[in-house]
């Protein structure tokens, strides 16, 4: 990590609650994704974006139903093109130190496909279809969705607000506690 | 706590008394013979030795006597064949004693919450052992290692492995393995060396002739945490899942370590410490790897075989459970055969096969497996503890040395604690959810030793290990101390430390979904970060499982359904069953008093989050809850319930158990009776509520009459009811018709009513408090009558809410069909084919037209429904748009057709046919109504519709 000082300023490091070590690991990972795009010197905040195609085309991710969604949620432009900041954000959200509410918020955002700040039925259906790889019939999906809404929809508006979501998730104690990634 | 003490004393005396009563059983008959002693146990034991001699003496002189006394007439009317039945008889008596002891312990709720059962069983064993000893001057029974390892232990381990929460287990696999391997090694070495040190320092008496190897051997067998003891104690403590799985998983997995250490040391002891070469140590390590990995592999192989076999048991459901037991047991025996870790093998066989087996076998088989396993495990555990107690009484087997005993106790406790803390410290650097101090305390304190250690120590060869008797005594004390003292105190400790307890809550659908989604998300992020973490591997495994294993091991009809869907169904089934279980209560409270909110709250099942939320939600939205707005989950559940109910209620009436077959499971007499009782209850309630609401209903009825849906309906009340029932019947015609013939229409009506009542009650509570309740209660009565109107009502909902019914129906098919399947093999195949997703399309194809028809109230439907009963089923079911839903009806007709002569149907049909035409003017065609009412009942608005229907008309 000798050269980390040259890559980041101290301020930049302070902005994230991750250790220098982790920070540099992530940076090199980020850079490995697109060595030609990412400069080694980050002290003057170059405007570099990793296009979604790069992330989405990773072989490990090809089966993952949420790859696009994750990229979209965590990228500033909402289209999956990630800056280094986005990239680091993603990991800080998933780090153990991130507060529960933050995790819940991002989890919520991942489900909220149409970005209307509510998980509505169509969002749920999308989630389900992704999770089951379209193996459920429409009927089944609809039923499950309704069940989900029934369980969690406290204000009965037919969709889940962030409050509903948090409430539901906080009820299951170990739920968010596993929403971690250790680097 | 003086009371528990008293109680325990009382209990003990009671048990002792019972034992005394029990044991003489064989003896008393014996004593008639004059040759046997008063105490059967002693006797039976004595017999083994005495039997040959005594019997011989008896017979020869006896024979002579006979000849002399009753010359020539050598035939004895009653013969004493004790030796013939001896072994099974004794076993049976033991089982009986154990079971009765269990019953007695559970007489007092408060007592059992304080004192763990294992303690009481050991005490009982001590008492029994004392009795036997006094009676016989000699201990005849003790825990035989062979018996323990071949029969008692596998039942417990099998149960534990099969029902092991796989995900939890693998989530904590790292910790489990660490504690099991490193921890056990640490414990055994430290204990061994420390004891040796104590010996050198003369803390341990010189009589104990043991050198380092002996102590290491002893350390190895005494240091392993025992699965039986852990299960027995922890199951009552209800610590949180993670804690439990770590301690329990450790106790299972450390078997490999124990086995290897034990064997290695034994061989060392045999060879003599001086002849041990360095190579042997490496051999020991290699042996450990082989034993553990080999055991695991054997288990997995058997798991695959088991999954594969159960894939083809569709036609022979009755032996499905047998396969499960056999193969799991075979896994154990096979591992034992190759002297691999049998416990590991069995555990992994259970874990591995569980998913596939559960998916493959029928619901009933599942239940059978579950109950049988639990029964066996429970009885095995009981016997183990009793025998532990009994064995301890036998003084001849052990020799006491205070130094050794106290040293051992102190050492194992200290090293356990140190080991746990040390390992946890390391583990916590890697764990996502660190184990905190409290967890560590519980884990250290929960390091219980048990029967495995005892059996191992008894197995020792007294020739080789000079100090065997001392070791036995020490082991017994250690086992007793850990099981009794720690077992007794761990509960208060857990309470005092406020260890998070486990909640019995089952995951909600939300959790199922989100958990899975989180997994995916985390995997994705890990992948992006280029990490190959746990999630990555799990994801890979799931891919593999999905692509290959599931296809190989699951029935086609099963593996197409996603796990999520399975989970969903399970939850639904659970809900439905719970509602049914509580059926009586629900009905009373819901119908006769206020709506179900209060009554619901009282159900344990409803305390889970889902329902809690739901209730809150309903409270919030009382006003908002317009019919169309909220498709309440309750309502859904109700639908499911209704369907389950429908299936259950109807079954008993069928006559399919006319023949006895070994391969079919006839509906149990008991079961049927239960249902009968239930129905009678319902009827009674209906009747009572009817009387109060009679007037109101009259109005409705009169309205209905006016509509003249069915001319016959207009006759006297009773006939009318019948008719209305019949009208509904077309859908389920065969069943009902049978019922009608078998019993009187009233009952059948009640059944029909029961569904309605249920539906109504649940929905009601929500919308309006009191008025709704009244309506609800009345509605059941009204429902049969009001059905015609209802026909229309369901349709509107279908559009909006439609989905709930389908889910219900699907689930219902799952539950019900299973039962039916056993009765009719043929129906099975059709069912399964239907149930599988692909089938639906065809139904759908039919569906649009039919649904359209159904929506049109009058004329069209008769036409569609007249052709044949089965077709009508299809059509109605199709209207629901649900494959599942249509399944259910479908199946029934088929069975019915098979069972009954078709002519039974015909008359009904004919009678029915006329009505439909008549009804053309009136919206509700009766036959479809019934089905629909069942299916569609759940939709939120239904309560209102039902009640409203009549008035609107």
TrEMBL record, chain A:
<dbReference type="Pfam" id="PF13499">
    <property type="entry name" value="EF-hand_7"/>
</dbReference>
<dbReference type="InterPro" id="IPR002048">
    <property type="entry name" value="EF_hand_dom"/>
</dbReference>
<keyword id="KW-0479">Metal-binding</keyword>
<keyword id="KW-0677">Repeat</keyword>
<keyword id="KW-0106">Calcium</keyword>
<dbReference type="GO" id="GO:0055074">
    <property type="term" value="P:calcium ion homeostasis"/>
</dbReference>
<dbReference type="GO" id="GO:0005509">
    <property type="term" value="F:calcium ion binding"/>
</dbReference>
<feature type="domain" description="EF-hand">
    <location>
        <begin position="140"/>
        <end position="175"/>
    </location>
</feature>
<dbReference type="GO" id="GO:0000287">
    <property type="term" value="F:magnesium ion binding"/>
</dbReference>
<dbReference type="InterPro" id="IPR051433">
    <property type="entry name" value="CIBP"/>
</dbReference>
<feature type="domain" description="EF-hand">
    <location>
        <begin position="99"/>
        <end position="134"/>
    </location>
</feature>
<dbReference type="InterPro" id="IPR011992">
    <property type="entry name" value="EF-hand-dom_pair"/>
</dbReference>
<dbReference type="InterPro" id="IPR018247">
    <property type="entry name" value="EF_Hand_1_Ca_BS"/>
</dbReference>
<keyword id="KW-0460">Magnesium</keyword>
<protein>
    <recommendedName>
        <fullName>EF-hand domain-containing protein</fullName>
    </recommendedName>
</protein>
Automatic annotation (TrEMBL), chain B:
<keyword id="KW-0050">Antiport</keyword>
<feature type="region of interest" description="Disordered">
    <location>
        <begin position="831"/>
        <end position="953"/>
    </location>
</feature>
<dbReference type="Pfam" id="PF00999">
    <property type="entry name" value="Na_H_Exchanger"/>
</dbReference>
<keyword id="KW-1133">Transmembrane helix</keyword>
<feature type="signal peptide">
    <location>
        <begin position="1"/>
        <end position="29"/>
    </location>
</feature>
<keyword id="KW-0967">Endosome</keyword>
<feature type="transmembrane region" description="Helical">
    <location>
        <begin position="322"/>
        <end position="353"/>
    </location>
</feature>
<feature type="transmembrane region" description="Helical">
    <location>
        <begin position="442"/>
        <end position="460"/>
    </location>
</feature>
<feature type="domain" description="Cation/H+ exchanger transmembrane">
    <location>
        <begin position="96"/>
        <end position="496"/>
    </location>
</feature>
<feature type="transmembrane region" description="Helical">
    <location>
        <begin position="285"/>
        <end position="310"/>
    </location>
</feature>
<keyword id="KW-0813">Transport</keyword>
<feature type="transmembrane region" description="Helical">
    <location>
        <begin position="243"/>
        <end position="265"/>
    </location>
</feature>
<dbReference type="GO" id="GO:0055038">
    <property type="term" value="C:recycling endosome membrane"/>
</dbReference>
<feature type="transmembrane region" description="Helical">
    <location>
        <begin position="215"/>
        <end position="234"/>
    </location>
</feature>
<dbReference type="GO" id="GO:0098719">
    <property type="term" value="P:sodium ion import across plasma membrane"/>
</dbReference>
<dbReference type="InterPro" id="IPR018410">
    <property type="entry name" value="Na/H_exchanger_3/5"/>
</dbReference>
<keyword id="KW-0739">Sodium transport</keyword>
<dbReference type="GO" id="GO:0015386">
    <property type="term" value="F:potassium:proton antiporter activity"/>
</dbReference>
<feature type="transmembrane region" description="Helical">
    <location>
        <begin position="146"/>
        <end position="164"/>
    </location>
</feature>
<keyword id="KW-1003">Cell membrane</keyword>
<keyword id="KW-0915">Sodium</keyword>
<feature type="compositionally biased region" description="Basic residues">
    <location>
        <begin position="691"/>
        <end position="707"/>
    </location>
</feature>
